[in-house]
Each structure stands twice: as structure tokens, then as C-alpha cells.
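Exercise 7. Predict the joint structure of the components listed below.
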Amino acid sequence: MVEANDELSAVFQALADPTRRAMLSRLRVGPATVGELAEPFTMSRPAISQHLKVLERAGLIERTATAQWRTCTLRTEPLDEASAWVERHRGEWNDRFDLLAEHLRTMKENSE
Amino acid sequence: MVEANDELSAVFQALADPTRRAMLSRLRVGPATVGELAEPFTMSRPAISQHLKVLERAGLIERTATAQWRTCTLRTEPLDEASAWVERHRGEWNDRFDLLAEHLRTMKENSE
DNA sequence: TCCTTAATTAATGAATTGCTTAACCGTAGG
DNA sequence: CCTACGGTTAAGCAATTCATTAATTAAGGA
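Solution:
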């Protein structure tokens, strides 16, 4: 792999781990410090830090530092694109012309 | 990582690659042989085969062999669960009680 | 039978992932 | 000042991912 990872891939990649998904679920309730996010898990703090870094790079969380606490906040915008992709591929869509046109468009975007 | 990968992780993992997503997009038009799926890409056939294996393990395609051709068909069922997860985390949901209850339920499922 | 076509398997390799422990950094409090 | 607390950085390791080339299987046609 040479290519700079596109945003959509980064989001799906971030979601492809149960720990990270659980963290995002927790953040739906409201912002949390790293310690609070780590609490349900048995893994080490550095492991938690690394998961958070993945989420941050995917744009799914924001971190703000006050004193020695890092507060994490959920960002849902990147999920819009992910949702759009999934919904597009899920429907009982049968217009072959539209589908082919869309596929060719996707191919073109992909080769930019 | 020790745990046997759950289905949802496998689906998101499969979607976290532009080549695989393009293959699924192509399959929306209709079933295709491996050769047809490989056509837009410059990578080797074995690489294509491995991508298809990932998609198959995630339940996103089905392969049927007739003569020396393997025909791939899109299976959208696994996308339902993925869609549900994303939509759940995307909404402008503000009932903290429900969110907390749901989060705790998710945690419990996660530890089974 | 021999050759071509379609695709997979096997073996290899570089890069990435997910975890660990140990060391470090910045803030607050005695 | 120095110690504790909250977190990150660094280094190392096993396993997985994504690609390659070479060899293999399996069916169809001359």
C-alpha cells in the first residue's frame, strides 16, 4: 500500500474494532476524559491512547486539554459519509442504468 | 488481540479498503466473474482473489462456480447491522437516560 | 492429447495493527 | 521542591494485512 488513505477508509478502519466502537458509544452519552473512557477495559493506558489516536485521525473524536485531563468529544460528521456509502449499497435498487453510471463515476473518483 | 472477530468488525474491516468498496459498487450492477471484477484494477489476480476472500468472510459476497468461472454476487444483509450501528451513532439524540442504558447494554453484550 | 483460459493456492516480504512495559511530561497540592 | 496523578511517547513483539511471483487445479477447444 502506497496511497494516502482516504477519509472513508480511515473511518471504516476506525469502526472495525469493538473497543473503539464501545468508546464511541460511551461518548454518545457525553464528553469523557481518557480515564473514564478506559474504565470498562482491562487493557493498558497506552493501548487506550493508541485507540484514541485512531479515532482522532478518523475525525471521530476531538480532544481538548484542561489541566492534566484530556476531554474527548464525539464528532459525528465523518459518519455521514460512511452512512451514505452503506445506504447506497443496501437499498433494493434496480435501475441498472443509474447503477452503472454511478459505478463509473465512483471508478473515476477512485483514480484521481 | 485474542478474541474471535465479531461479524460487525469483519464487515467494517472489509469496507475499509477502496478496492473492496469499488468491487461491491460494481456488484450492485449485477453479478460478475472474478475477471470482470479485476478489470478496473492494475493489481495481480491473486491480490484480487484475496480481496474477494475478505469480502466473502464478511458475508458481503457469495461465489458460485460454473465451468472455470466463479461468479460473485452481492449480499447486502451484513450491511444492515453496519447501517444500524452507524445510524445509531449519527442521530441528534439527546435523551441521556436512553443513551446511558443503551451504552451499558452494549458493554454487557461486548463482554459475553 | 495438448494448449489456453479462469482462478486459486503457496510462499515470500514489507508495512501496519494491537498490544505490552518502561520512561517521560505537565499540572496540582503538600 | 518533590511527589502523585493523568496521559502520552518510545521501543519491542506477535499477528495480520496487502501486495508480489511461481506453481497448481480445473474445464473447454483444437
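Discussion. Chain B has a mean pLDDT of 87.
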